[in-house]
Amino acid sequence: MSETDQQAEPIRLGWEEWLGLPNLGLPTLRAKVDTGARTSALHAFDIEAFGSSRAPKVRFGVHPIPGRDDISITCSAPVVDRREVTSSNGEIEMRYVIETMVDVGDGQSWPIEVTLTDRATMASRMLLGRQALRDDVVVQPTERFLRPERKFDVYTTRKIKQVAPRRALRIAVLSREANNYSTKRLVHEGEERGHSVEIIDTTRCYMAINALAPEVHYDGKRLPRYDAVIPRIGASITPYGTAIVRQFETLGTYCLNSSAGISASRDKLHAHQVLAGQKVGMPTTAFAASPKDTSNLIGLVGSAPLIVKLLESTQGKGVVLAETKKAAESVIDAFRGLKANFLVQQFVKEAAGEDIRCFVIAGKVVASMKRTSDGDDFRSNLHRGGSAVATRISPAERRVAVKAAKAFGLGVAGVDLLRSEDGPKVLEVNSSPGLEGIEKASKKNLAGKLFDHIEEQVRPAPSRRKKKPA
């Protein structure tokens, strides 16, 4: 047979076939081929539109294996139409229409339009209508499974990750500062990748807490299901903000940083205890509640100069350098008079007003910068007039930064280090690190790297839950 004859060979389909929808992350489906039906239909549940009116998208779940509702794949696709479809029982339903590739095996695939509807009561997860059949397709209504066989085990093993496509995600950024550089960068980068990114003011969220249907509400409406949440919780609302993140965790939403990690990193005393427990190097630190312990407290840290730091301090505020023991006692007495919680810390003189910010994503340092204080100020925070330049870090500094972020279980973290005579010491682990300073210093697209990590975490993979007993 000549090559021309082989190319002219028709594609033969039975009335039931194996096929795949690779663009949706569905490599294996059993479909009914019905030339009496005009429109193709895919079983879908939790169908939810998102995105802008100019480029609408739809997000939905699919149970790819008949009878296995404990296994579901989350899919998304651009909406090409909404139209009325009359089902086989005569009911008229308004359905979303998407376009995707159908793969029938042996290298044969082509684009088709598919409507989304609940086919839970149907034996086949998909119906392939006549509009989806090319001219070279021949349907043999008395035959089944003429195409190469496919296995459902792709959904019950890690193989699905290898074939899963990148899909449009619906992402929430928890932030009270819509015009903040970091927030705007996250929105811009996400939308450039085709995702829908929504800014949610954390303080305007409220929760329905119950065992059966926990929810997050916002401005009088229940928030939709998000693929991922990026928490950027301000220090002043940490308790409430982490409660909202916990609620999303309860819903099964992927949160870039966990509520527990944010809480622990924000409480400086707790944070130092976590770091000490993981044997991460840091300046010697002491804490006491009683005013009788002031001298002993200073003695535990060493001689002056030393640092007195409020537990709730951020961006260098509430951090005082005491040059002498008498000055330290005065600062401590003042803080105690205000009933403020604080700790006393060794001053690393050799750092000379410089620190290193390491930006850690998914257990890797992806950028680093050296921050230098302004004038005689010992604090190098950019918010206090400090300057920053990109810098190379040593293998030891890299290991310490990664270990510190891992100690809190943070997907993204800004780890601040001091270069001391006896190695790197961690000053702080920031669970909402700013992007502006380090992106400009490093000339790297860190928002893009962050989305790379999110996409990897929420690629179409089967979500599993226990099957209900029969």
From TrEMBL:
Annotated GO molecular function terms are: ATP binding; metal ion binding; ribosomal S6-glutamic acid ligase activity
Q: From which domain of life does this come?
A: Bacteria
GO cellular component annotations of the record? cytoplasm; ribosome
Q: Which terms does the UniProt entry file under GO BP? A: SOS response; translation
Which cofactor does the UniProt annotation name? Answer: Mg(2+); Mn(2+)
Residue ranges constituting the ATP-grasp domain according to the UniProt record: 272-455
Which is a Pfam family this sequence falls into? Zn_protease
Annotated Gene3D superfamilies: 3.40.50.20, Acid Proteases (2.40.70.10), ATP-grasp fold, A domain (3.30.1490.20), ATP-grasp fold, B domain (3.30.470.20)
In Swiss-Prot or TrEMBL terms, this protein is called: Probable alpha-L-glutamate ligase
Question: What organism does this protein naturally occur in?
Answer: Salibaculum griseiflavum
